[in-house]
Structures are given as C-alpha cells and as structure tokens.
Design a protein that fits this description.
CATH superfamily of the largest domain: ATPase, nucleotide binding domain
CATH topology of the largest domain: Nucleotidyltransferase, domain 5
Number of strands: 10
Structural class: alpha/beta
CATH architecture of the largest domain: 2-Layer Sandwich
Strand order of the largest sheet: 3-2-1-4-5
Number of domains: 2
Shape: globular
Helix content: 40-55%
Radius of gyration: 21 Å
Largest sheet: 5 strands, mixed
Bound molecules: 5'-O-[(R)-(carboxyoxy)(hydroxy)phosphoryl]adenosine, zinc ion
CATH class of the largest domain: Alpha Beta
Strand content: 15-25%
Order of helices and strands: EEEHHEHEHEEEHHHHEHEHHH
Length: 362
Amino acid sequence: MPNPRADARKYFLGIETSCDDTGVAVLDDSGKVLANELLSQIDFHQVFNGVVPEIASRKHFETIHTLLDRALRRAHITWKDLEGVACTIGPGLVGSLLVGVCTGKAIAAALKIPFIPVNHLIGHIYANFLTNPDLKPPFIILLVSGGHTDLYAMIAPEEIRYLGGTLDDAAGEAFDKGARILGLPYPGGPSISKAAEEGNPLAIRFPRPLKKEDSLDFSFSGLKTALLYYMKKHPDFPVSDAAASYQEAITDILIEKTFLAGRQTGFRKIVFAGGVSANRVLRKKATERASQWGYTAHFPNVEDCTDNAAMIARAGWHSLLNGAVHQPNVTVDSSLTIEKTLATMKDSTAAKTQENDKRPVR
Ligand code: KG4
Ligand code: ZN
C-alpha cells in the first residue's frame, strides 16, 4: 500500500542558529508544531559569562544534523514530505547564522523546495501565533530580548512601524550584566528572576530612566551602573533583595513605556516577544495593567519566548502562504532589522508585479 503522504509535501521545516541555541522544527500544513528540537550551548559559554562566537558556530556545526534527524523522527515524516524550509538569516552571529543558512540551502537544493529567509526578530513576534493562531493586528509589540528592546505597532502582517527603543543597553543585556555584578550565572534573566523569588522588590529604589517622558524610548545603562555602585558600597547586601529590586525597576520601565505606546496609538492589544517576555514579574504586571486599563496582553508560551526554531518555521510558513518564493541567493546579515526586511519584501513584491505586467495578455 503506497504511503498516501509520500508526495503530499505538506510539512515545513524551520532552522534557527543565530546565537547559542541550535533549533530545528517541523510544522504541518495547518501551522501546528509537530517537532521543536532545541539544543542549548549554555554549558559551553557559561564559564566565559557570555556567548563566545567561535564556540557557538562550531557547536551548531557539530549538532545540527542530529537535530534534523530527531525533528523528522518526532514529526513522523521523511525528507520527501517537506514542502519548504525557513531559516534565520539575521540578526545574530555571522558564523552561527552561516551554519543554519548553508544547511537550509543544501536541503532546499537537494529536495527542490523553496528556501525562505526569516528575520529572527520577526520570528520572535510570530512565536505569539504558535500559542494564539487567531491573534490579529493591529497591536503594539514589545520586542525584548538579549540584543533588542523595541516598541512597534503592527498594523497589518507586512506593516510594522517602529515607535521607539532603547538608547543604550537592551533589557536582556541589563539582566545579563546585572547578574554578572551580583555574581549570578549567565544567562542573567533566569538567574536574577530565580534569586528575586526570595527577595524584597522594594529593598532598593533604583532609578526609572525616561519614565516620566512622553517618548517611547528606553535607557537601561544607568540602572546597571546604579546596581554596580550600590553593591560596591554595600558588599554584604542580600543578593536576593538586590535582584528583586533590580528586576522590579526593569519591568516597571518596560510596562510604563509599552502601555504608553498603547495610549498614544489607541491600540488596546499588547503583544510581548523575545527572551525577556518569559519573565514572570513582567507577565504578571502586564496582565494586571491590561485588565485595569481594559487592554489585552498576549505572550508566547514561556518556552517559546527564548530562541527556538518553531517561531522561525511559523514566520517562514506565513511568508510562503503569502507568496514568498525560493530565495537561494540570499545571504546572512548580522545586523538585520525589521525595517530592512520589510523594505526587501516590498521591493520583491514590486519586482514580481512588474514582471507580471510585462507578460503578454492573451
Ligand atoms: O530572545 P533571546 O532568547 O535571544 C536573543 O535573541 O537575544 O533572549 C535572550 C535574553 C537574555 O538576555 C536572557 O537573560 C533573557 O533573554 N531572558 C530573561 C528570562 N529568560 C531569558 N530575562 C528575564 N527573565 C527571564 N525569565
Ligand atoms: Zn532571539
């Protein structure tokens, strides 16, 4: 009996290798996640208190084929069942991105299926559609990760407007640097959050930079310096209290500016994305504020907030359904922005339209 799925080609592969997590995911043709394999390299980087790019790319290279095998097995499919492959092309570490992109392009070439490039930041936003497929724009997005703290308004899936962002450190970076000051392990977000569970968030009143201003920008570097000086002056101060107070200040700033963006735009739906959106206190404050103000707050599942391949597959799958085509010549871009990706998409749509216009009308 022939396998009825043999030529159906209705499964979609996602690959994520932008930083220190190797991820491979499989979606079915309804966008459901059938496999989401992830291998963290934290153990190799923790001794250096941060990600070492050379180690990161080597580890991706050593493990990606194992994750591909695992993902196909978990999804109960074979290579022949794949209809497309999405891969993160940036932003991220060049060497790490290249491992994923070379792998994705090779798979696409061998199977003669489209290679769809994905912007990692847009992937983080799409993590929300994994949990909440019915989520519809317009909404405000707080994209808050290790390298980014930005506010956007998503008016339509392909119309995303920048509203404001950090003028110095990202919130995730503030967590990571704060943890280093407190002697807590990398990555700082989860370790500060854990230490803070036992602490008093009102123990130290840290500054809330730019809080009172009307702008939608953030600043975290002064907060980190305030923590450094406080701990130098009070070396025996309980780490749990310092961690809780520091987390309280970061999350306060994020909440104030995000809801200010809601007020300024009139959008009453707030969507959180990126690693820091896993933070328990941030989620609690957002949910409470949303209910007080008559807004709704949306988050990915905690495990989908940090880097993973399912969010990349979901964003790529959306592009494919909306007419994205095989892009074998695309390359990695370590400083890719959402604006650059949207501009490229617009250009390629315009080029396609022009090509269609040139076709003879029968
Ligand atoms: O999105 P992500 O996995 O990678 C980037 O694209 O940057 O975010 C990683 C960042 C790190 O800075 C990490 O400390 C932070 O997210 N993070 C958290 C939590 N989990 C991860 N920050 C606060 N609370 C958490 N629970
Ligand atoms: Zn990320």
